[in-house]
Amino acid sequence: MKFSLKNNPDGMGHRIEVQVVAEKDEEIVRVSTYFENSTLAEDDLEPPQVQYERVFRQVGGITPNDSHMVKVTAVNGQGVEQTASRTWAD
Q1: Preceding omega of 48 cis (within 30 degrees of 0)
Q2: Claim: this prediction has a pTM higher than 0.90
Q3: DSSP characters over 19-62
Q4: What CA–CA distance (Å, rounded) separates 61 from 49?
């Protein structure tokens, strides 16, 4: 699977864009997104899909020099998990 994780300021928080694309004969059956160890979403994909995209708006807060992390875990049809993360500072 290929992951794309983007973040931008969004009002008083962050805009987080998540994209997961299956490779070869894979299918995505579940995607879980976490921000600073809190769950943003747990999406079960029925039927399984080859691409997943979701945008989260006004997540967290913006404070100079604070560090943040978003983590995404995707599960394929065989139950294999893959995880990607992105870390940034305000």
Answers
A1: no
A2: yes
A3: EEE--TT--EEEEEEEETTEEEEEEEEEEEESEEEEEEEEES--
A4: 32
pLDDT digits (tens, 9 = 90+) for 27-44: 999 999 999 989 999 999
C-alpha span between 82 and 36 (Å, rounded): 18
Q: Domains plus CATH for the chain?
A: 2-89 (2.60.40.10)
CA 69 vs. chain centroid, Å, equals: 10
Strand 51-59 and strand 38-49: the pairing is unpaired
Structure tokens at 69: 């992390």
Supply angle C-alpha 18, 75, 87, rounded to 5: 40
Burial class (CB in 10 A: 0-12, 13-18, 19+), 26: middle
